[in-house]
DNA sequence: CAGATCTGTTCAGATATGCGAACAGTGGCT
DNA sequence: AGCCACTGTTCGCATATCTGAACAGATCTG
């Protein structure tokens, strides 16, 4: 069987299983059988058997009446293990600590997934310890420093169908974004000037562990704290952090 | 079809799909095809097809050689959505904020899963802002305040096969644990005196949203900060937090 | 209260997966 | 080198899933 066939991926019910889980993840609520069937297009009876199986295994939960479905807790456990098992996140950990310490700001570790960036690790700012747990959440690729840093490293960046406006500074034009990516390549780091979230600016650099880069690290700064000095220092610190991470990585991989 | 049948759960390859993901989550590393086959006992060729399917879908990743498998990023995204979609976690959120604020300590929201507690939400202490992201991780049920609070609410608590020793204070005897649970019921809250982690004490109460309780909230305090006053105040604050959460829950559910 | 129109559920035939065995690489050992 | 033990990979038949249509239960409506 050819892998790029019209038959789609090999095992049908495995494909559907994860498609179902993906559906719950994207929509994030409770859905009835028929609602799911309308969305995914699978036959009712197939979904029925599948859902019952997954409920039995704890991967899908139902409401007390047994008629509304949502994602189950086992999914959470498995998801968390992705981070624990990732060698790069593990190696980057102490350097991100250091980076948060010297900047006093919030740092993130992001990984490109299709046309979005997934936050794999967050270290809150020293100042505002908001409980924002963003780990495992997606952020747009065109309006964040993480995303732009990663896009800039690709010869032909894949972009979402529409560059959704997040703030009044968001770059929504594809030409303008291409130009911005050129500047990112030139400078060696990406910046986000309240393009994703009003009042928040970010800087990011990619980790050059594979080509094109898959991972990036960033520092987020409230616009009010973004002095001229900080604008110079933070990118420099990011690059030092990158060196440290890349160094450990090369040692680990011999 | 009977639910407690010898046929096992309905759709075989869905069962295997999630069993495979569970395997990766528990072991948390990279495994070869034959290693997985030894562990799970499925035929090689079946696993082969399944793994290829899941790799194609981003739920399993391979190393550069394509011979070692690990959990993929999509699993992380789906797991994170469990927390976002949970109504109780959502409602408890601002109360946990408040609890962290008034105590100045780290608070957790835990949910019972089989014989372990899963951390669904953490709010770091005001003092030591360690980046401990424990969300999605399991903690033992017998050595934590969260676990003991939840166990105490069950008529016949399910326990792990062995009560593993975590610190020198861990209760490892089943009789002693039963006695401890009796005290928890009497007092209305559970305490952990460095039983799970040396230097850390916890208090926890269950949320009475269903019988037996499924969720609990806790406050963790470094043993060095645990004054007599704190020992009285923290359980009282936990109970106030519980009232607030239960109140919002009943409003939401009418 | 009957009819209409949604739900979730079951069933037997069409169809795709699952299985063991044989094949093909790879590295280690004498 | 040659053999051996071990991987990952492919392939055809037995078998279990998938499916569409029919059934049943609930809610709404005039």
UniProtKB/TrEMBL annotation, chains A, B:
Mind listing the GO molecular function terms for this protein?
Answer: DNA binding; DNA-binding transcription factor activity
The reply on keyword Membrane is no
Which SUPFAM superfamilies does this one have?
GAF domain-like (SSF55781), Winged helix' DNA-binding domain (SSF46785)
A Pfam family reported for this protein in Swiss-Prot or TrEMBL: IclR_C
Q: Where is the HTH iclR-type domain?
A: 11-73
What keywords does the record list, in alphabetical order?
DNA-binding, Glycerol metabolism, Transcription, Transcription regulation
Output the SMART domains linked to this UniProt entry: HTH_ICLR
Q: Where is the IclR-ED domain?
A: 74-251
Q: Which terms does the UniProt entry file under GO BP?
A: glycerol metabolic process; negative regulation of DNA-templated transcription
Stated role = May be an activator protein for the gylABX operon.
Q: Which PANTHER family match?
A: HELIX-TURN-HELIX TRANSCRIPTIONAL REGULATOR, ICLR FAMILY, HTH-TYPE TRANSCRIPTIONAL REPRESSOR ALLR
Q: What is this protein called?
A: Glycerol operon regulatory protein
């Amino acid at each position: 069987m050819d892998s790029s066939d019209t038959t789609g991926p090999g095992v049908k019910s495995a494909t559907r299983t994860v498609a179902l889980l993906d559906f719950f993840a994207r929509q994030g609520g409770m859905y009835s059988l028929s609602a799911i069937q309308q969305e995914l297009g699978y036959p009712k009876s197939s979904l029925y058997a599948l859902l019952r199986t997954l409920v039995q295994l704890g991967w899908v939960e139902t409401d007390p009446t047994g008629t509304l479905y949502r994602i189950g807790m086992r999914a959470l456990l498995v998801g968390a293990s992705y981070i624990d098992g990732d060698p790069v996140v593990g190696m980057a950990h102490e350097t991100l600590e250091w980076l948060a310490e010297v900047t006093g700001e919030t740092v993130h570790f992001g990984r490109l997934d299709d046309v979005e960036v997934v936050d794999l690790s967050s270290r809150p700012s020293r100042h505002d310890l908001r409980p924002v747990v963003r780990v495992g959440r997606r952020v747009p690729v065109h309006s964040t420093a993480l995303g732009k840093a990663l896009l800039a490293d690709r010869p032909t960046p894949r972009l979402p169908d529409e560059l959704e406006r997040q703030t009044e500074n968001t770059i929504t034009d594809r030409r303008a974004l291409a130009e911005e990516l050129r500047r990112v390549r030139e400078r060696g780091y990406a910046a986000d000037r309240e393009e994703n979230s009003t009042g928040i600016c970010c800087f990011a650099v990619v980790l050059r562990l594979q080509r094109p880069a898959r991972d990036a690290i960033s520092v987020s700064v409230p616009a009010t704290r973004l002095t001229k000095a900080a604008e110079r220092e933070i990118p420099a610190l990011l690059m030092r952090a990158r060196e440290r991470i890349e160094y450990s990585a090369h040692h680990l991989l011999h």
